[in-house]
């Protein structure tokens, strides 16, 4: 096929920062009608799309011929990134796989909001890119908010330089509770057997030791695990500092954390993170957040270092189905 350019379009409420637009939106004008044509187009334009992704942090692809988990699998796989399966991750959200690569974004009930976070930043192993696919949009609500973490951290650093330096120097530790069985009513309900890909407590302890965790078994058969020191801020190759963590999601959405943040998150040295600092980061994030207004068939490619994401609550009879594929490069 002859080479086809990237058709960028504007949508309401995009964020502008210097020369970058967040998110970038690519519209198929109808000339790409098959997955083979899409794959060839991606190959032709991959370098330009990746350069744009590094500057913007997210690209929304609209009007492409996708209508199922399988077609999304093919489209996302055409970028050629190494696969990062959910099974091998340490995420504690309950998900359902459609293909080896593709799974549901989250099985939490529709009224539950998933707050801003970097995918799996609360674990020692996290993906570098996240693909989202809207199979069916909700009747009302259900947007995926995305937030530019570099802009957020720059403002946090300007307002609270000492706190920002503590985040850089000390890093973080996360403590999570993994139940004995999957709890689909929780945004964090994946069992320790599923999370760690083990069958016994002995296997779980061996895996946790290998990864540098500390842990304690609870009376109900659950597992309380604390990570090794993980970064709160990551410096990218282009010099940008990004607020790479799960602090907002933990502070706003994890059970009991608003009342006592240290129950789940501390600085890497075990000291408490000031509540006003967590609240400031949460408030500042609103200025750098864009709600992806899903349409059926949309795909969003999100740089997991540059951009946080979440899920707004939704309502209506139509089931919201947003699927995910992860990549590591």
Automatic annotation (TrEMBL):
A Pfam cross-reference name: TauD
Name under which the protein is recorded: TauD/TfdA-like domain-containing protein
Alphabetically ordered keywords of this record: Oxidoreductase
Cofactor: Fe(2+)
InterPro entries: AlphaKG_dependent_hydroxylases (IPR050411), TauD-like_sf (IPR042098), TauD/TfdA-like (IPR003819)
Domain TauD/TfdA-like: 37-324
Membrane-crossing residue ranges in chain numbering: none
Entry GO MF terms: 2-oxoglutarate-dependent dioxygenase activity
Gene3D superfamilies for the chain: Clavaminate synthase-like
Superkingdom: Bacteria
């Amino acid at each position: 096929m002859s080479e086809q350019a990237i058709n960028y379009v504007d949508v309401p409420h995009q964020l502008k920062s210097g020369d970058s637009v967040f998110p970038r939106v690519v519209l198929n004008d109808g000339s790409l009608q098959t997955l083979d044509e899409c794959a060839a187009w991606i190959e032709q334009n991959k370098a330009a799309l990746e350069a744009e992704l590094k500057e913007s942090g997210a690209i929304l692809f609209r009007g492409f011929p996708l209508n199922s988990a399988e077609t999304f699998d093919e489209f996302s796989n055409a970028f050629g990134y190494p696969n990062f399966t959910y099974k091998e991750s340490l995420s504690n959200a309950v998900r359902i796989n459609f293909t080896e690569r593709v799974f549901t974004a989250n099985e939490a009930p529709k009224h539950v909001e998933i707050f801003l976070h970097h995918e799996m930043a609360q674990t020692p192993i996290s993906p570098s890119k996240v693909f989202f696919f809207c199979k069916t949009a909700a009747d009302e609500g259900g947007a995926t908010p995305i937030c530019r973490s570099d802009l957020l951290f720059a403002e946090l650093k300007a307002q609270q330089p000492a706190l920002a330096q503590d985040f850089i120097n000390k890093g973080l530790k996360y403590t999570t509770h993994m139940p004995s069985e999957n709890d689909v009513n929780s945004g964090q309900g994946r069992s320790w057997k599923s999370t760690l890909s083990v069958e016994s407590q002995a296997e779980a302890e061996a895996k946790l030791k290998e990864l540098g965790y500390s842990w304690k078994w609870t009376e109900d058969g659950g597992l309380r695990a604390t990570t090794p020191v993980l970064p709160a801020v990551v410096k990218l190759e282009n010099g940008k500092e990004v607020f790479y963590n799960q602090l907002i999601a933990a502070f706003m959405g994890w059970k009991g954390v608003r009342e006592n943040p240290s129950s789940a998150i501390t600085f890497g040295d075990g000291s408490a993170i000031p509540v006003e600092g967590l609240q400031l980061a949460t408030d500042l994030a609103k200025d750098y957040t864009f709600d992806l207004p899903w349409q059926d068939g949309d795909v969003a490619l999100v740089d997991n270092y540059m951009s946080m994401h979440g899920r707004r609550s939704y309502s209506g009879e139509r089931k919201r189905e947003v699927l995910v594929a992860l990549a590591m490069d």
